[in-house]
Amino acid sequence: MLEKIELSIVVLVLIGIIVSSGTMYYTTTAISNLSTLTSDVTTLTESVTNLTSTLRDLTTITGLMAETLGEYNETLAALQDRLTEIEKLLAAKTKETLIVGTTDSVEKTLDPAQAYDYFGWCILQNIAGTLVSVKPGSETGADFLPELAVSWNASEDFDVWDFNLRQGVTFADGTEFNATHVKYSFDRAIALIDDIPEGAPAGLEYNKLINSTEVLANYTVRFNLNHAFSPFLGIVSCRASAIVNPTYAPIEEVGYHAGDSRASTPVAFVGPYYLTTWARVGGRDIEIRLDKNPYYWNTTGEYPKTKTIIFRFYSGPSTLRLAVEAGDIDMAFRHISPTDVLDLEDNPSVKVWWGAGAFVQYLCFQTKRAPFDDPRVRRAVAAALDRSAVCETVFLNLSQPLYSIIPPGMLGHTEEFQKLGDANYALTQSLLAEAGYDATNKLTFDLWYESSGHYPSSADQAIVYKEALEASGVIAVTLKSADWATYKQNRDSEIMDAYVYGWYPDYVDPDDYAFLYWASWIHTNYHNATQEALYDQARATTNTTLREELYAQIDEIAAEQCSVVPLYVSSAWAVTHPKIYGIYLDITQDMRYWLIYIGE
Amino acid sequence: MGLRSYVVTRILLTIPTLLLLLSMVFLVMRVLPGDPVALRFEKRADPEQMERMRHILGMDKPLWTQYIEYLGGIVDIGYLLENGYPNLGKSMQTYEEVGGQIFSAFPATLELAIYSMIIASILGILLGVVSSKSYNSILDHMIRGFGTVTYAIPIFFLGIIFQLIFGVYLRWLPTGLRLHPSVEPPSGLTIYLSPPSQGFLYHFLLSSIAGLIVSAVYVAMLRIKHVKFKLKEILISAAVFLVTWIAYAYASWYFVCAGELHISTGLYTVDSLLEGNLFTFFESLKTLLLPSLTLGIILSGMFIRMTRTNMLETLRLDFVTAAKARGLKESTVTYGYALRNAFLPVLTMMGLQFAILLSGAILTETTFSWPGLGSYIVQRINLRDYTAIQGAVVMFGLFITLVSLVVDILYAYLDPRIRL
């Protein structure tokens, strides 16, 4: 009996705890709801007062009707202004949170000295400021807007760059932004290269490019470069050049890891958003929340337009597609497959956005041994490729054939590889006949592709390439595949005859593409002093006609040598809720979340 | 062999098992093609930089040194006490502690496993009993068919079908993740305490009250039970007083200085209740429904068959006939008598099924973007994150061993023959 009483007391207490905590929760929610309601009511009263004053204006207008027409128009304009103001006030009361679904995840950190992954850079762009930025919607990627720098000029040799900085910008801890912060940020990036060999400043070779950074005046900073470098604005606009707050980014300490108190402190950067939440489970993001930075300097444009951005993380393209289709999320960008996006285009509950792409894929040849040590053989294979077949059947025309490693829209893009043609079997046969191959003694080689989804539809692509090559009658291809880790190792150990590879730009400039023809890390073992000299010459001038000519010459040699053969350039797309506006899908591949807004 | 020595042997046996598992994973990972260092470099890989990274990760040392160091890390008790998880090394991809990563991902998998197991056993046992009761009827055949089909159906297929029906077309339930994207995850119970103004002495003096209360309760309990007060009882109540006093003083001082007391399990259904947030609780149940239903239905097939066979055997036994003859209700005979006896083999099955459940969890988690240990392993294998995979496999091994241990003990408890 006693035990039962004891038990019932314990149960009662437990029930009491649950009920009271629940009640308390609901009371607090109700109270907070009530306060929102009161603030809503205040806004409404404000609008009503506005309206009455408008009415008063109206009576004044009627009174003034007899007077001059000009005055009347003026009052009307004022009236219009007031009306839009009220509309804006009401619109601001609508949805303020944008939920974005993605299959990406920040790889390691959000430290500009370390992050070198697409999504890490994407978040950095929205929380950190750079000196200049590429204009949203830019077609060439070469129109730069002032950000933390208001003006800039380069010396005649393009090895000394001066920037005049914006005044009155503050980090959120109250620190006034000035030239020392710029110097500190670049010095830090370079100083950490040894400790973080995989970081972006190491990959972009900041230490080889920048000799020193000088503070000329409080708001003027000078970069002394080691060599002439005209695309320097591109480097300055990329996320590895983000300005950091010295208090929160000491040189000896590395990394904004999730869980790091600094990662959740909104004082590190000067971008349009704060990083308010960054939660990771098992080394992968589960939540990132960006909130409006009230100290953001660009208040004239009322940026950011959406107060809060929340990222949610899905495991793959198919689940992401289902989530955006079901309306669980407002927006999905990247990693929706071509088939899915074409399917979604007919769906009235979502809106599909299209834009230019800068992701390219290319075929690489191992030039250190037969058969591809012979440029004729490489040319023969390049001529037999059928790019349009791949773009049509695999990418459903959402990618375009590429005939220069520099994608269309960018300075220096040519159609040089058109010379070899597509499925140009006559050329293939004659070139291979010269090299000693014919229908009985076919050219045989292994064509490798990546099989774990690192590149889009790799296996399908490979099948189409093989078909086109073998249709020439003089080539026999064996398809081989490996998952990304093995593929990368195979590349380094140089065991693959021919392999498909891909490239995303770090900064939008032909300078970040043209070198792919001979890049040592692709391990084609191809070197060409003429091409490299032309490349260096192109970096040392901003004369666009001259640069265009130089890149055209590089392409001409490339089409002759065929160490690396451009295949296609992708386009970009995003899928959103129909009421979302302000998305710019341009050649930079950046998603500028501060421009996105939710309409009626 | 007594139950206690049996349990002790079982526990001791897990050590060599886990060690063997660990060594195998350690070797297999390093034999696999692919290089974690090369993968760290997104685009441009400079041999010199890669060499530096190899050194930072400790991969330039001989294999046996790495192995010894790794084992040494795991048995580092000091680290375990300080962090609450063993030292499983640092992730080769993210610099983060593998132990921390695994322990942050584990609650999600555990929650999924628990709820799928509940669904699987309820569904499996109920259908199994119904099927055995209506032996050889159409219903029996249908249930058996259901069992076979669900056992053979691929998890991701069933999962996608559910997502399409309930997520996309009906829009009743979220298609993935652990909560609907617009809902904030629960943070568990947080008790905010006053700022540390008075220091330890203050808490020490104040805590004597707690000691008094607890010892008074103890004394009152003794009184209710009519225990006579002798020296022993007085000593014990004094000890209770002292221990409570000191423990409470230390705890309250510690937590006040820490600012707040945070209790969180990582299981969203539990955390939301702790937080007193019923909305999040129902939301997390809603999101749990599809993945656990998928996994539960797949697992239930085996349960249906096991329950059915055992029930058929038991229903033929004499004691069932005797119970029926005594005029007991049909349901009492079935559930109270027969099922209790038929349940034992099913229980053993449940333990074994946990291994299958966890491998099923890998597929379910990927299908539903569930951020648990399954997704973790898949993603780490693609990155050749040696340390992370070793840690996760050991964790799975440990979990399965623990569950089978618990099942064995439960079995011994339920079956008196073993206790004899």
How does this model look, in words?
- The complex is a heterodimer of chains A (600) and B (420).
- Chain A contains 16 helices and 21 strands.
- Chain A is of the alpha+beta class.
- Chain A has a 7-stranded mixed sheet, covered by helices on one side. In chain A, strands 14-18-13-17-15-16 form a 6-stranded mixed sheet.
- Chain A is globular and about 90 Å long.
- Chain B is mainly α and 420 residues long.
- Chain B contains 17 helices and 2 strands.
- The longest helix of chain B is centred in the last third of the chain and has 38 residues.
- Chain B starts with a helix and ends with a helix.
- The chains are: A alpha+beta (600), B mainly alpha (420).
- Chains A and B meet through helix 1, strand 1, strand 8, strand 9 and strand 10 of A and helix 2, helix 3, helix 6, helix 8 and helix 14 of B.
The helix count of chain B comes to 17
Largest sheet of chain B: 2 strands, antiparallel
SSE series of chain B? HHHHHHHHEHHEHHHHHHH
Largest interface: A-B, 59 and 68 residues
Number of helices of chain A: 16
Q: What does the average pLDDT of chain B come to? A: 82
Which segments of chain A are poorly predicted (pLDDT under 50) over 5 or more consecutive residues?
none
Distance between the termini of chain B: 9 Å
What is the overall shape of chain B?
Answer: globular
Q: How would you describe the oligomerization state of the chains in this entry?
A: heterodimer
Give me the count of strands of chain A.
21
The percentage helix of chain B is over 70%
Helix percent of chain A reads 25-40%
Classification by helices and strands of chain A: alpha+beta
Q: What spatial order of strands do you see in the largest sheet of chain A? A: 8-9-10-1-11-19-12
